[in-house]
């Protein structure tokens, strides 16, 4: 050992201590004294020459100079050692020994190993599934080669003093933008989803597709199997179909090109391109595309700059230096474009602006608040990401807890190893290594479970996730996850065990301080806080979904069927209606553009006497047939449209919200002007929910339409007779409309689709909460077993002295229950805050009541109690003679 | 025959150690080097060279006494080993031999 250095002279000043420590840390020990001495000598000399400050600076500089291979910690190569070197190194024999000990530990304590591996594996299953889901969410729309240059043109409007953003734009916008702005390379409109009946020879079927601009295939990466991107959609009779349709109707893509297809049994179109089926991870799905020219021709009203319906996408030119295009500058120029092309807009109270949203963001960030992007699906991605981390953390905590609890058993091994000369870093390595071994066993198990669960998970989430065996990133993530889990799980036990004092351990006087116990208890509390959060979250989500599904919407969605009016049903609608009403099982019938859950459109062009110039209210509107209120079972004051009155083409029905917004106390008989047509309000509909409960009820105007074309026929069947009703509808359809496939939808199923993501989230949350509490209880089970074992002798003595079994069970359980109760107290306010934020998304929602917390707390307590009592009762029933005999 | 490789800097350090007759240590050599060769070297370079030389067996080291200006730490004093001396002589001889081949008055070429 080196002699202790005499204290340095006080007046000389001293070099920075941190630099010295740094040097001591990185410098090889056998060089340290020499190097330090030399540095110090120079320092002393420099203080005299250039002053202390400068000397200190140079000292630091010189210390840093020693960070180089020869001085860095390394084994002494010269054989002149005067110290005894540690015999334990990373020798193969030693590694074999570590593995052997690790394996014996796993094999010897089957319960603990099983709890550990199972807990870790379940945690990993959860995080793996979530990871796959998140990966899939991020891959949506990410495959377009020009993705960074694609933008969605959106509109911001001022309605009712609120800024609202929407993707609907005027139909002529895409072409005009491309003409006016040289920055734009391509622009394409994109219509709403349509269903059309395709007829080729004797084959006919209904297909889903859209209209799209001529640039579509130049912008988006949708590979063409046949045809060229420039000509695919450049004429009104052009039709691009997917590989699936080409194979269905013609046998192959090659055979399909140039052939003609009759649409809706009216018009013939030429197949000008066949595109590859769209991948699962595209947000927009379509099996055919028709040209934009055709779209405008079919819908004259699209030429009006005041009407918004389709979407507009643009692709910007690459900047000259290869940078991304400057979308902000273009956005600034675009902003008031609509006012330039449409002078009428200048005085409009709606204050319309255009803005750009990067196309790849559209899927995950689809919500807008006050006209600006505000979350969307990304919130669920984040939420589940957090849940994944939480659950993995719970599993890691189990591991840490059990390992530290069991450390008494390993303490002797640590003592012996230390006495033979193991240094601390090697012991840490050994225990972390053991944790990693367990983690990898768990990972293998987890992979197996995930592989089995994946089909179920896909059904649940409506995705097509597969293992990407070939992708290195998949394996890298797996490996990373396992390493991280192993390191976190193994860190505390390793640090704790390696710090034990060998002398005390081997003398048998080892007492664990209260620090270790407190830490363990803290971990249990933390685990249960996380579990409680998940349980409360699940209850709230479940209740909200239940609320949505049972809430009285103002109309009766049971026993409603939708058909679409097409082909002969348009001309022979009145015959159809007459015949159908005579058929069994049918109560009433109407048609409507849109559906009860989705009104067709909205308009601000509504006037009434006394309307102020600045008032801008957006009214939802729908056009309907007679018997509308009767079929939907709406509550109505006044009267419905009726053939008994000749003037119903200028009569309107409005809902209560509309009456309130207009300011009519008794609206029936009052005047109303819609799109310049003055008419009268003949009926007041009690408010009903026109869309999902995310949105408050909006003002609504309903107008009679004489023409059923492309509208939804809504049929109310007799309760309990839907089969008969459907049979009569189908028979009649086949008679009147043989060239079109018969298909229908149930209103309540359509309604469920509005809450698809909530329902998925609810179900997933259910499973995750269950898993979390299960994993937590696994840990608790292990800890309880450990405590019971530790206190075997104490229990024996108590029993001998006359303690009853219940009193012992209480004694053992109370400690743990205290922790669970603390966890409940901590978790409740956190959960309350989180769930309030989630519910804020709904315009109509449940209240978070106190009993939810009480119930979740009770549940957690009962589960924990059951877990612990198993061990406690086992311990309490033990024969004291046996446990005390050895003493 | 196994050849000894000695870098130019190592050679100078070894020469200095030889010249300082048992009193050579890190700082001392650094100062001497700075004075005599007029090139500025840093302490860690000298240390690195010394330890390389020791690994090659050309110098031996022993610990000196602690001194107050070193904060009580001991010096590591270096001496040249017999093998070190021989290497230095070999180098000198080889250089001399090579010099013998150089003509007395070198022809200077001017290509203007």
TrEMBL record, chain B:
<dbReference type="InterPro" id="IPR036390">
    <property type="entry name" value="WH_DNA-bd_sf"/>
</dbReference>
<feature type="domain" description="Transcription regulator PadR N-terminal">
    <location>
        <begin position="17"/>
        <end position="89"/>
    </location>
</feature>
<protein>
    <submittedName>
        <fullName>PadR family transcriptional regulator</fullName>
    </submittedName>
</protein>
<dbReference type="InterPro" id="IPR036388">
    <property type="entry name" value="WH-like_DNA-bd_sf"/>
</dbReference>
<dbReference type="Pfam" id="PF03551">
    <property type="entry name" value="PadR"/>
</dbReference>
<dbReference type="InterPro" id="IPR005149">
    <property type="entry name" value="Tscrpt_reg_PadR_N"/>
</dbReference>
